[in-house]
Write a structure and sequence with these properties.
Layout lengths: L1 E2 H7 L8 H20 L6 E2 L5 H13 L7 E3 L3 H7 L4 H6 L21 E3 L6 H14 L3
Parallel strand pairs: 1-2, 3-4
Helix pairs in contact: 2-3
């Protein structure tokens, strides 16, 4: 499990939230996932990957290593994300304290190639879990 926040602290420490650094962070996560796939493992990655070109690059990296990338897009509306924000990051971004914040002052390019799209504002947690497990089961070997 490669959690975006943990990766930023350990593997991508020192990177900013500029577009170049976000891309590098996602490429690093993709590289680790590709290496896991190359050796027969499964990597579950949970970063915010806002740019389509970088997601495509990572997909190519993973498939080139013999893996399969299943893209799950959590398409919950921005206002719901802000209401759920336990860290207060959206409020800081709205106040101008966090520059280049995805969805506020920096774009998010919604995937057009997601294997699964979940709007957690209209479905229960259990329904989202079931949908993910069904997708994984349909791709298991």
């Amino acid at each position: 499990m490669l959690d975006g926040d943990v990766v930023r602290r350990m593997l991508s420490q020192g990177l900013t939230f500029s577009r170049a650094d976000r891309d590098l962070n996602i490429r690093r996560i993709g590289f680790v996932a590709a290496e896991v796939a190359r050796h027969g493992g499964i990597a579950v990655c949970a970063p915010i990957a806002p740019y389509a070109a970088t997601r495509a690059e990572v997909r190519a990296m993973v498939t080139g290593a013999g893996g399969e990338l299943l893209l799950i897009h959590v398409s919950t509306p921005l206002e719901v994300c802000e209401a759920r924000d336990r860290k207060g990051l959206y409020a800081k971004a709205r106040a101008g304290l966090i520059p280049e914040f995805t969805g506020i002052s920096d774009p998010y390019e919604a995937p057009t190639d997601a294997n699964l799209t979940l709007d957690t504002s209209t479905m229960s947690e259990q329904a989202a879990i079931t949908a993910v497990l069904t997708l994984l089961d349909s791709h298991s070997q």
